[in-house]
Structures are given as structure tokens and as C-alpha cells.
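Pair request: fold both.
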Amino acid sequence: MHSDYALNLMSDLFWTGLLICMPVLGLTMLIGLMISVFQVVTQIQEMSLTFVPKLITAALTLIIAGPWMLRKLTQFTVKLWTNIPAMF
């Protein structure tokens, strides 16, 4: 395997992983930020107030974006498996 091919493959791997994780991480971070602002304004420091909405957001995001995420991961895997002969 050539070094430029390995670097390109690693780049594709990281970008695909980032693209797949971004909807869940982005939305839970946004909800966490909104809950933190709400806690600062109201001075309510309850731990379940931060955990439960983020958990629900992550579950709903996986339900809604799950097929798209699985399709992207499958496309990357198929591309990887079909390019195995070109690696050697």
C-alpha cells in the first residue's frame, strides 16, 4: 500500500466518522447549552434536568437520522471493500 493511498484512506475515514457523529453530537451539545443557560437564569441545579433532555434528543436524532447514518457508513464500507485489490 502506498503512503498517499493510506493517508487518503485515513482522511476519508475521519471525515466519514465526523459526518456520521455530527448530528447526534451537535444537537445534544445545543440542547445542553440551552439547558445550561436555563439553569443559570433560574438557578436550578438539578442533574437530571441536563441528562434527560440530552438523552431524549440523542434518541430522537438516532431515530430520525439513523437510516441516513447507516447508509453513509454502508457506502464507506462498500467503497473500502471494493478498493482492497487496489491496495496491494
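--- second member of the pair ---
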Amino acid sequence: MTALATGHVGLNVSDLDRSVGFYREVLGFEVKASGDGYAFLGDEERLVLTLWEQSDGAFSTATPGLHHLSFEVDSLEDVTAAEARVRAAGAVLHHDGIVAHSEGASSGGIFFEDPDGIRLEIFTGAGVVAAAPSGDAPTCGFF
């Protein structure tokens, strides 16, 4: 079998227009295609997210399924810029800003929620000098 890579992630949302606006504003995605009840979002090179208006209510952390969706950026400056966009969008931001992935790690980022409560992470692999809110446990597992 050949190596597998994530193609795109599909998310159910409760309000397509609101979610498209959020993912465009906060993550900088462009609409690559859309129709009645769906939108395909990505960057210049690839499709990243498909949004489907097929849900009522908010994301449940109490049932099996997606824990969180993570996006890697090149630098701490990119994480800092993303944090500003998350705050400007009024999104729920966990840990009050940039944190390390675990105590002593130089990787880390921000942990926040989209308008439906879907948990998201934007991180960089190095350059983070911040405390880890969960000690040696992975920060991304406990928000």
C-alpha cells in the first residue's frame, strides 16, 4: 500500500454563510466551489475543508468523533497573527493565547473554537517560549 496523506476534512456546520466567513477571515481560506448547502475551501494549491450545512446545535465533545482539527504554520509570527484574527473574530480562545504543546517543548500554538464549537489549533514546530497548561501531557488533548 502507498503512503496515505489527508486529502481534505469535511465538517458539518449549522450556518454555512457564518462558517465560510469565519474560515475565510481567521484561516485565510478562499472559496474554491460552493452550492446549495456546501462550500469547498482551500488555498491556492489545494482543497482543505469542505463545509456542509447539515447540523443543528453545537459540536459535541461528549460523543465519539473529531477531537480537534490542527493546522501548522511556518513561524511563531504566523501563530501570533492568527491569534489576532481569532480574537478579532470573537472566537472562544482556550488557554488565553499561545502555549507550548507540553512543558519544555518549543512547539505550540493557539487552541480555539469555530462558530459551531468545533475545536481548532494553529501551531508552529519551534520558537514557542510559553508555559504548557497541562504540564507534560499534550496541550492539544485537553481543551
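Observation on the second member. Residues 76-88 form the longest helix (13 residues).
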